[in-house]
Amino acid sequence: MEKKAKMTQHIDKNVIYLFLAAFLISASTLAYRYIKMAPCDEVVFTSVAKEYRAGELIKFIDKTEGAKFWEWKFDDSTRVSTEKEPLHIFKEPGEYTVTLMVNDLCIKKEVITIKEKKEVIDPSKLPVFEVPNSIVLGEPLKVIDKTNNASTWEWRFGETVRVDADTKQAEYIYKEPGLKTISLVVNGDLKHITRKKINVLPIESDEEPITQISIPDKPKGWSIKHSPLEKNIKEAPSTVEPTKPKTVPYISEKEFTRRMIMVSDEEMDVKQFTEYFCGDINKPVISNGKNTTFLVLCEKIRGRKIKIKKLDLYRDKGSNCIKNLIIDYRKSLF
C-alpha cells in the first residue's frame, strides 16, 4: 500500500512538470510572436525593371506602412528573400505569382508576366555583300558574298520564297519590276540574316511620244452655249468670337499638401477644393499606389491625422484645372 502511494505521488509530480514545460514553451512562442508582430494596414509593393524578360534583373520594392519583416516568394523554386527591396532574375518566360508576407501577418500576391529572352544579334556574324540601288528589268544582277569563313550560302532575290542560289557568287534576272528584298544566309545561321533592297525599273518603251492631238470635226449645234443661272450670294461676316478657355486659380503642391493635412485634421471640407478641379472633385487619383477618386480619398483620410510623403499634381494646360494627382501618405503617430 505504501509503495503504491509513493508511485502515485511520483506520477503526479511528472504530470505537473509536463504541464509546466508545455506552458513555458507556449508562453515563449507567444512572446516571440508578440515581439516580432508589427501592424500592417495594407501590403503595397511595386517592381522596377528595364524589361520584364527572362534573364533580366528585376527589383521589387515594398511600400507597406509599418513593415519590419519581409518574406518574398517568387514562384520559381528559388529561395525565400527577407530583404525589403530584393533583386531577382526569372530564368524562364511565363507567369509567376509573387507573394509578399509582411510582419508574419499580412500577405499580398501579384502575377507578373515574363517574356522570352531577347535574342542578341552579333554584327560580326552578319553576311557581307553589296547590291546597286536599282537595276533595269531584264538585266542580270551579279552578287558575291564577302563573309569570312563562309562555307554554305542561301540567296533569295525577293520574287519567291525558295532559295534562288547556293553558291558564293550568284546571278539573277528579275521578271517583274518593283522594290525587291535580297537576303543571304551563310553557314545555315538563320539568326544572322542580311537583307538589302533593290529597285527593279521597268523597261523604257520604244514608242514615240505624242506631240499633237487631232480633234475631229464638231457636229452642228455643238457650239451653242447654255448660260446657267447664277446666284450672287454674299455671306455675312462671322461675328462669333472664339471662346476662351476657363481658367481657375493656381494652387501650388505645397499649399495643396497643407490643405490636405487640414482635411485629415477635420479643419477643412472637401468641397473647398471644387474650384481647383473645375467643379468636379470626383477626379481619378492614385493613392499609395492604388486607383481611387479624390472624394473617396478625402473621406478615407478624414480624422486620421496623416503625414504626406509625396504629392504630384497634373493640370490641364491653359486652365490650371487639376486632372488627377498622385499621393503617398501614412498615418501620423502624433
Strand content: 25-35%
**Chain-averaged pLDDT:** 82
CATH superfamily of the domain at 123-201: Immunoglobulins
- Give the low-confidence spans: 229-236
Give the helix tally: 3
What's the level 1 CATH class of the domain at 123-201? Mainly Beta
Briefly note the CATH topology name of the domain at 123-201: Immunoglobulin-like
* Helix percentage range: 10-25%
Main sheet record: 4 strands, mixed
Question: What is the first-to-last residue Cα distance?
Answer: 71 Å
Broad structural category? alpha+beta
Shape: flat
Number of strands: 16
Radius of gyration of CA atoms, rounded to a whole number: 40 Å
The helix/strand series, from N terminus to C terminus, equals HEEEEEEEEEEEEHEEHEE
Second CATH tier, the architecture of the domain at 123-201 = Sandwich
